[in-house]
């Protein structure tokens, strides 16, 4: 992994992953792929090359791969869960037709490909607690449908053509750097912003709605480490369960109140997000990722909360 293209480099994950790769992969060229209207800014723009890269344009991807001799593609282009429910055809076009374009370019040019999956790839028929690595996946959202199809298509290109495809099933991701953009788990970011700003938080999910969550530094580590893993040790590829912490709104609210005792939260349930959340696991079993490539998170709820509040105070106050 030396010359890397990050597609979706200005999104919630991509903006931080691009910078991590530039800092940590010695001798690398990391190209920030973006679409017009979402151009890189600040350090992301100044620290390395950037190219317009629309996943729906296979020739554009191929041109970048040839120009920079790309060997690894991180495909982060996607609509998040709640947005995908409002725009299902656009979600399919970006997440499936875009993936086909990337996989074809990878097949022709010998690139490895990382395309993340999600807890959204599971459905109401999946075991909710300690969700197995290999289990029934019958999601009821367009986001989930595309994630299952992504896993299957990525595995197909590995077995059929030898394309080195790998991925993880991300839980809800929590970050102080980039705001999320329409995911079911977004409340777990928004609640920290409200607390630091001294505002009451309107929670869109009901008490008792448990979901897997992860602090962004752990998610970024997973995205890098799986691509560096010894392929001989990988029994699975697309996609690995990874887990860090599981909580409901009441639990994260109680943790925040250790720092802000007067913090207030009320419930304003979003039916779309609640329906999606109710179909997702409470907690995934990530033993295969731990065994096959050494996955291990660094943050739990308490340590993440302290770090989030520290950085948000610097950012907002």
Descriptive report:
The strands form five sheets. A six-stranded parallel β-sheet has the order 3-2-1-4-5-8, sandwiched between helices. The protein has a three-stranded parallel β-sheet with strand order 6-9-13. A three-stranded mixed β-sheet has the order 10-12-14. The longest helix is centred in the N-terminal third of the chain and has 22 residues, at 88-109. It is 44% helix and 16% strand. Helix 7 packs parallel to helix 9 (249-257) and helix 7 packs across helix 12. It is built from twelve helices and 16 strands. The protein has helices spanning 14-24, 42-46, 58-68, 81-86, 88-109, 142-161, 187-197, 216-228, 249-257, 271-278, 287-293, 301-316; strands spanning 3-7, 29-34, 50-52, 72-75, 112-114, 117-118, 129-131, 165-166, 168-170, 172-174, 201-203, 211-215, 240-241, 245-247, 265-267, 283-284. By secondary structure, it is an alpha/beta fold. It folds into two domains: 3-171 and 216-241, NAD(P)-binding Rossmann-like Domain (Rossmann fold, 3-Layer(aba) Sandwich); 173-213 and 244-283 and 298-316. Strand 1, helix 1 (14-24) and strand 2 form a beta-alpha-beta unit.
């Amino acid at each position: 992994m030396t010359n890397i293209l990050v597609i979706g480099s200005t999104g919630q994950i991509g903006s931080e992953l691009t910078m991590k790769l530039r800092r940590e992969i010695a001798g690398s060229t990391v190209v920030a792929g973006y679409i017009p209207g979402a151009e890189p800014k600040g350090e992301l723009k100044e620290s390395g090359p950037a190219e317009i890269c629309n996943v729906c344009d296979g020739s554009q991807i191929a041109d970048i791969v040839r120009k920079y001799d790309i060997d690894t593609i991180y495909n982060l282009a996607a609509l998040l869960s709640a947005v995908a429910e409002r725009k299902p055809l656009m979600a399919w076009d970006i997440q499936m037709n875009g993936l086909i374009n990337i996989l074809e370019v990878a097949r022709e040019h010998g690139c490895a490909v990382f395309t993340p999956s999600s807890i959204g790839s599971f459905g109401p028929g999946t075991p909710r607690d300690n969700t197995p690595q290999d289990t029934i996946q019958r999601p009821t959202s367009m986001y989930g449908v595309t994630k299952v199809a992504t896993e299957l298509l990525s595995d197909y290109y590995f077995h059929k053509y030898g394309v080195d495809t790998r991925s993880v099933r991300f839980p809800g991701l929590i970050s102080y750097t980039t705001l999320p953009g329409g995911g079911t788990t977004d409340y777990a970011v928004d609640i920290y912003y409200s607390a630091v700003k001294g505002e009451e938080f309107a929670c869109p999910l009901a008490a008792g709605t448990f979901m897997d969550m992860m602090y962004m530094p752990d998610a970024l580590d997973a995205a890098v480490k799986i691509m560096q893993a010894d392929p001989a040790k990988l029994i699975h590829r697309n996609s690995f369960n990874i887990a860090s912490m599981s909580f409901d709104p009441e639990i994260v609210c109680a943790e925040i109140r250790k720092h802000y005792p007067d913090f207030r939260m009320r419930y304003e349930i979003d039916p779309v997000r609640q329906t999606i959340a109710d179909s997702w696991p409470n907690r995934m079993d990530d033993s295969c990722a731990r065994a096959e490539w050494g996955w291990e998170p660094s943050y739990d709820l308490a340590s993440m909360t302290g770090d989030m509040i520290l950085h948000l105070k610097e950012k907002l106050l």
